[in-house]
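I am writing to request your help with a piece of structural work I have in hand. The matter concerns a single protein, recorded as an amino acid sequence and a row of backbone structure tokens. Could you please explain, in whatever detail you think fit, how the structure tokens follow from the sequence? Thank you for your consideration; the sequence and its tokens are set out here:
>
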Amino acid sequence: MEKNIKPVESQEKKKITNLSITRKFFMLLKGEAPVLNKRTSEVLVIVGNKSRVNEVLDITNSDVAEKLDLLEETVTLSETLHDLHLEKYVSGLGRIEAPQPEEYTIRDVKKTIAYFNKLLESREAKGNILSYKLREITDVALALEAYERSINGMLNNKLYKILVDYGTPLVKAKLLDACGFPAEEVSGVRISKGEFTFTDDSTGKVYTVPVEKGSAFGVKGYAHKVLNAIGKWNLASSKANNTGDSYDGERNENLLNGCNMLKAFTLMDCYLDEHGKFAPASSMFEVKSKVRKYDRALAKEEKAKVKALKKEKQKKLPSTTEGKKK
């Protein structure tokens, strides 16, 4: 993942001290994190140098974004396998030994799932006609069931720590954004009981920054919600995992919701209000808007590349006139 680590022009950044009624209305309506369908690494590209998040992650935990993406992909795969209801095809049959995680890749599993779905769409499968394809469905289902046990075995409570390891430097970076401080000062930021403390390294003076709690609706208190979630994830990561290689839908949902929450908060701008409280300055509508703008820019760039390539190929082709002369 390429990270933009240019310093932010903090002194030129205009501070927000009041939010318009329209903006507050959007924040009220769009209070929950949307499913962005973007990897964390892509979200960080969208943010670029408009926030200190990339710089802070480089300082504190440079590979945690990749870990978060892998976690999300693994949990999603667990859900996909669960939705196949493989027990219908392997019930009463001997199990295949579950492979070790290092023996396959997520791509291997996805390809096998795609092939399994293709087999299910065949005439033989739909008509329950005895054939090699019908027998192959059982073989592939057994392989997928083994993958499912292996993947579910990897998903334990310790993985909540990945959410903590990404979320903690993220909220610290957002405070630095709001204050206009450089990323290097992240070492002076502490989180305690739903608020920040900042220690001025040059004087040793400690400042307390409360976090806006808001209400049950909207995103005014979303930063406080994220801080609470980090505390819960940290606690969950210390609890024993008793599910073994069985499916745990509740944990899967919690992990995926956590990934969505952190990606949405990564794309939010934050500010200190007139009372010095830390709060988001972006609605969920604006979060989605940033993603749409990024997608449009990518599509435009891809279109320009195709056009340029086509133009280059035309240049290399001999003209009709030259062909006649020869």
